[in-house]
Amino acid sequence: MSRINVGVVGATGAVGETFTNLLEERGFPVGEIRFFASQASLGRTRVFKGREIPIRVPEDGCFKGLDLVFFSSGDGISREWAPKAVADGAIAVDNSAAFRMNPEVALVVPEINADLLPPKGRPAIVANPNCSTIQLVVALKPLIERYGVQAVRVASYQSVSGAGRDGIEELFNSTRQALEGEEQETSAVFPAPIAFNCVPQIGSIDDQGFCSEEVKIMNETRKILRREIPVSAFTVRVPTLNAHAEAVWITLSKPAGSAKEIEDCLAGGEGLQVLRHGQRPAYPTQKTASGRDPVYVGRVRRDPDDSGTWLMWVVADNLRKGAALNGIQIAERIFDIQPRG
Ligand SMILES: NC(=O)c1ccc[n+]([C@@H]2O[C@H](COP(=O)([O-])OP(=O)(O)OC[C@H]3O[C@@H](n4cnc5c(N)ncnc54)[C@H](OP(=O)(O)O)[C@@H]3O)[C@@H](O)[C@H]2O)c1
């Protein structure tokens, strides 16, 4: 198999590290690999397949010779450098929000809309959706295909790793301080203290009262599903380390007979693992999903006051399926690669 030259921008971050680990874990046929981060990381290295690779900073021409570049350094870096990677001949898979709602750019979850991916050899930006959106649409897909959909509502319970390395550090430090009796009044990372607390705001709040994470889920879900359906989201940061959970209400267009029928339908969905009512464990938690690839679903039940509406609990690793794994699966489809195992 021909080798693929890969760049990882944001290689020292939470998503970038997961990209690097997954490239090895999945046996991605990497030729040359180049790691990029900020000036602050110059002089550092990252180990890939036992070799120490120096960290570079992005500069003009730095992507020449690369076939594929993963971006996970934030919106500003992607806006500036992803088009340059494409101009240098690479496919740019972007984890930031910079291009997601651009009508010219494909926003892809391979289980759903891989048909939008560019062929290999045609450099382009491909946007990776928001972490909470990815796990939601993977769980919705088999139900929508079989029963149709009228509306979706979702409330999220999102771990601190969704805010990157700083979020993880903040949970450890603030929890330690709180246990030592030093309660924090504010947080440098979150809108309110995160130790022993839930914060009903992720990102900035707009004029309608929605925060940016909620707007991303609502808009991206419609774009990926290619359906102008009502989607309503309420996002909450919780003091768990990794993986996001979502309580989801889906109103179907056609009737379903029982919760078992819905569970069976979900169990046939790509990338999904169903924990069924009455089995053990009866439902997934953040700890079930953290470090694992599937999107887990449990607690499936009918709304007693609205027979067309079904409730379910959807959990996935935000750094894996919510970010790096989805990005690598995009690349595997484009370059026609079978993952190991
Ligand atoms: N965390 C998640 O669950 C998640 C999920 C989906 C999407 N995303 C998106 O992925 C991106 C990265 O998130 P993260 O959680 O990995 O953040 P993070 O842990 O804070 O990592 C940020 C990375 O960006 C690098 N960086 C900062 N300034 C840079 C510059 N001027 N040039 C090049 N690199 C620079 C950092 O390098 P230094 O080490 O040198 O500072 C670090 O490698 C964000 O756009 C985020 O929205 C995150």
Return the domain count: 2
* Tally of DSSP helical segments: 9
Tell me the number of strands.
14
What structural class do helix, strand and pairing data support?
alpha/beta
CATH topology of the largest domain: Dihydrodipicolinate Reductase, domain 2
Strand and helix map with partners:
Elements: E1 4-9, H1 14-25, E2 30-36, E3 45-48, E4 51-56, E5 68-71, H2 75-87, E6 91-94, E7 106-107, H3 110-113, E8 125-127, H4 131-147, E9 149-158, H5 164-179, H6 212-225, E10 231-237, E11 244-252, H7 259-267, E12 272-274, H8 286-289, E13 295-303, E14 306-316, H9 320-334
Parallel strand pairs: 1-2, 1-5, 2-4, 5-6, 6-8, 7-8, 9-10, 12-13
Antiparallel strand pairs: 3-4, 9-11, 11-14, 13-14
Residues 9-16, 36-38, 40-41, 58, 72-74, 77, 95-96, 131, 161-162, 164-166, 318-319, 322-323 line the site of NADP nicotinamide-adenine-dinucleotide phosphate.
